[in-house]
Amino acid sequence: MTSFLKTFVLSALVALSASFAHADSNTPIRLIVGFPPGGALDNLARAVAEDLRTTLKEPVLVENRPGASTRISIEAVKTARPDGRTILIGATPPFVFFPMTYARLNYDADKDFIPVAHLANVPSIVSACAGQPYKTIPEYVAWLKKNPGQASVGMTNLGGGLHFSVLQLSKAIGVPLTAVTYRGGAPLATDIIGDHVPLGTDALASQLELHRAGKLHILGVAGTRRLSWLPDVPTIKESGYDAFDRANAAYAAFVPAGTPKDVVAKLESAFLAAIRSPRVRGQLDRMGLEPTGLPGAEVTRVMNEDREYWRPIVKASGFKSED
């Protein structure tokens, strides 16, 4: 190859690379959410997107990819170009529980993603119809032992922290509890209010306003400390049962493996700034979410601790996901 031809080819490659870089910079950043519009995770993503547009000075879109227990959204991000322009806004349970409960997954929870930022904690609760005679967990347990035929517990999915917490509670009280699944928090809440299911468990965000309106009653909260929204409602641990100590999930941002470190660092900084802004914190607080704004390393730490806690419990349950 002549010197002239080499120079020509090199110049062409440089120009082509520049054109790709320019095209990338004009491509909106996409926040992928595995749920339909209107839920807590979608609302969080939209609140954060507004701040990211200002911080990154780029267009940021929220793209809803629901289905298959959020696996569609996870797989979409896994196969995206690792350039920081496709970001999963997701919950931690699919990275904690799914590898334990599914015989086969199309992603590796550790190898295929890089955690960017810990965005919020997702408090969970246990509730019942406001007209039920029991107002606390001990009162529910006493009632249940007199009415063992009404041992159904409503929840939005199987194979997650709340499901395994219910199994742990069942073991502790010596009464078999039957999980009844719903297609979301709204239909579950409707059946709790209508007294069609004696007990339900879900994220606080789905039931906080209904509790405040007196339409249902929250008997206890998951975790090891009371919630600022419900200072008078005891933790389930305070009621004598540690089954829900690690039932709460978290929301976090992830990018595909292979994303350059400097890109990850830039995104981490932008997400932390967004979560720490008073506007976003106020929105999340009104939704019943606890804004955190912690580095991606914290996501890894929390998920590893959750796996260690839940692994023997999941194994002992024998539960396997089938959807």
Could you name the key traits of this structure?
323 residues, alpha/beta, D-Maltodextrin-Binding Protein, domain 2, 2 domains, 6-stranded mixed β-sheet, 12 helices
Number of helices: 12
Which outline best applies?
globular
Q: Mean of residue pLDDT?
A: 92
Architecture (CATH level 2) name of the largest domain? 3-Layer(aba) Sandwich
The structure class reads alpha/beta
Rg: 23 Å
Low-confidence stretches: 4-23
Report the major sheet. Answer: 6 strands, mixed
Question: Might you state the CATH topology name of the largest domain?
Answer: D-Maltodextrin-Binding Protein, domain 2
Distance between the termini: 58 Å
Description of the molecule:
Residues 4-23 have low confidence and may be disordered. Helix 7 crosses helix 12 (296-317). 45% of the residues lie in helices and 20% in strands. It contains twelve helices and eleven strands. The chain is α/β, with parallel strands linked by helices and 323 residues long. It folds into two domains: 26-122 and 249-317, D-Maltodextrin-Binding Protein, domain 2 (3-Layer(aba) Sandwich), CATH 3.40.190.150; 124-221, 3-Layer(aba) Sandwich (D-Maltodextrin-Binding Protein, domain 2), CATH 3.40.190. Strands 2-1-3-10-4-11 form a six-stranded mixed beta sheet, sandwiched between helices. The chain starts with a helix and ends in a 6-residue tail after the last helix. The relative contact order is 0.18.
